[in-house]
From TrEMBL:
The gene is bcd3. The lineage of its organism: Bacteria, Pseudomonadati, Pseudomonadota, Betaproteobacteria, Burkholderiales. PANTHER family: ACYL-COA DEHYDROGENASE (PTHR43884), ACYL-COA DEHYDROGENASE FADE28 (PTHR43884:SF20). Residues 6-118 form the Acyl-CoA dehydrogenase/oxidase N-terminal domain. Residues 124-214 form the Acyl-CoA oxidase/dehydrogenase middle domain. It comes from Cupriavidus necator (strain ATCC 43291 / DSM 13513 / CCUG 52238 / LMG 8453 / N-1) (Ralstonia eutropha). Keywords: FAD, Flavoprotein, Oxidoreductase. GO terms for molecular function: flavin adenine dinucleotide binding; short-chain fatty acyl-CoA dehydrogenase activity. This is Acyl-CoA dehydrogenase short-chain specific. Residues 242-373 form the Acyl-CoA dehydrogenase/oxidase C-terminal domain.
């Protein structure tokens, strides 16, 4: 496999890295977390209008640059290095991805608005009792005239407080855990009957419980065919797992760099602690964990267009390693920094919180280890 970036991909990475270095330092991020808005709309507009990164992964027919999963990976890694709060995952990967894959009419209408920074989206699929089961959907979508009436409760919709639209899953037929009978809908956040209970997350983001009370949605806002959304949900979640793994890689790279710098400066017994062999070994182990995660994420990005089983296995492998490596690198970074590693004033603790949240998002390392085994041995999984 060729893991070299093209000239265009390298330019995308370098342009975004320079912008974030100039405009998104740790103190600016802390100020945004503590603000009423909880994010930086000015940066989102810059992503769209100055940098053009929101369209990097979309086809040219929709106004994008013709990229794909590799471009998502490149962007998310840079966002992870700076703990960016803006909703790239929910809007570009999941929201726009859902429209692009299954709804040409909706995609033609809304993907250009996403690329232009005018529309943002949040993924509202998980429910209070579903845990990581993707086909456990109790929210209902009953046919009513030329549309649907949606009712239900969606939990932990990251980015929902500042989203213009929600991608909502609901059951149009079947029992609670049936794979058939699930549909996806593109719903404006201000639609009557949609209520958000907003809250901050421990890693600095904003999320919401989404309550649906007889929400009227026209059939034209359904994404894809009725009752056939599960395959699309699987694909979108696998793509999002790769993007999250790339974000974790960026965060781990920053923790490793900060730890090396600290070890060069902090002195004990009159010498920098970085000269102690045991700490050198620990930082070498941090580097190896990071590089393994980067490699598996690259493989998963290259497998994004493969057959569903190959795609899912690669995504699982990347998410498993990102979760395990994130825990190792984060714990080692905090330990080498000592007590100050968990203070609010030092960046490393915030990065550790973010990689911990990434591990839990869309399934933990333990969950995907089991899923990987089930994909390898489907007969045993069925038994």
């Amino acid at each position: 496999m060729d893991f070299q970036f093209s000239e265009e991909q390298s330019m995308l990475r370098d342009t975004l890295a320079r912008y974030l270095a100039d405009h998104y330092d740790f103190e600016a991020r802390r100020a945004a977390v503590q603000s009423a808005a909880g994010w930086r709309p000015d940066c989102w507009r810059a992503f769209a209008r100055e940098l053009g990164i929101l369209g990097a992964a979309y086809p040219e027919t929709l106004g994008g640059l013709g990229g794909g999963a590799a471009e998502h990976m490149i962007v998310m890694e840079q966002l992870g290095r700076h703990l960016v709060l803006e909703p790239y995952l929910g809007t570009v990967v999941l929201g726009g991805g859902a429209l692009m894959h299954s709804s040409p009419e909706l995609a033609a209408q809304w993907v250009p608005a996403i690329i232009g920074g005018e529309a943002t989206a949040a993924w509202a699929h998980a429910e209070p009792t579903s845990r990581y089961c993707r086909h456990d959907v109790q929210a209902s979508a009953a046919r009513q005239g030329n549309g649907y009436k949606l009712s239900g409760h969606k939990r932990a919709a990251v980015g929902a407080p500042f989203a213009t639209h929600l991608v909502v899953s609901a059951r149009t037929s079947g029992a609670r855990r049936d794979r058939d009978g699930i549909s996806l809908f593109w719903i404006a956040r201000d639609t009557p009957g949609v209520t958000l209970r907003e809250y901050p997350t421990f890693d600095g983001l904003r999320a919401a419980e989404v309550l649906l009370d007889n929400v009227q949605v026209p059939a034209s806002q359904r994404i894809g065919a009725e009752g056939e959304a599960f395959a699309l949900i699987e694909q979108l979640c696998d793509e999002a797992m790769v993007a999250l793994s790339a974000e974790a890689n960026g965060a781990m790279a920053r923790m490793l760099a900060d730890t090396i710098d600290y070890a060069r400066q902090r002195k004990q017994f009159g010498v920098p602690i970085g000269t102690f062999q045991v700490l050198q070994h620990r930082m070498a182990d941090m580097y190896m964990q990071l590089e393994q995660s980067v490699a598996l994420t690259q493989v998963a990005a290259m497998q994004a267009a493969s057959a569903p089983q190959a795609r899912a296995q690669a995504a699982c492998a990347a998410k498993i390693q990102a979760g395990q490596a994130g825990a190792f690198v984060g714990q080692a970074a905090v330990q080498i920094h000592g007590g100050m590693g968990v203070t609010e004033e030092l960046a490393v603790g915030h990065y550790f919180k973010r990689v911990t949240a990434i591990d839990l998002q869309l399934g933990s390392a333990e969950h995907h280890l089991r899923r990987y085994a089930d994909l390898l041995y489907p007969a045993q999984a069925a038994a």
